[in-house]
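cron nightly-structures :: item 1 of 1
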Amino acid sequence: MSRTIKTSTGKKYFFSEQDQVGQGSYATVYKGFDAKTKQAVAIKVVGETFAKKKKPPQYHEIAKREADILRKLDNDPNLLRLIDTAEDEDYAYVI
């Protein structure tokens, strides 16, 4: 199943659930693509694991904290660059 997400800036990204890269305690990471440029990106879907475990939706706050930290460390060559973030009623996304 393919999913498309749209950020607040209007950019679109898509990924397939078959392209799962990893899963942690609160998020699942997929290989995705920028819909316009087709550039490969990592898309972290924060809250998917919570939803499966029926835990409370604290994931929006977790994703915001993670994005804030990545923005502060944007010049560190040892870390992945934060490209964008998005959220909908079900999940938060870190791209």
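cron nightly-structures :: done
The first strand starts at residue 2 and ends at 6.
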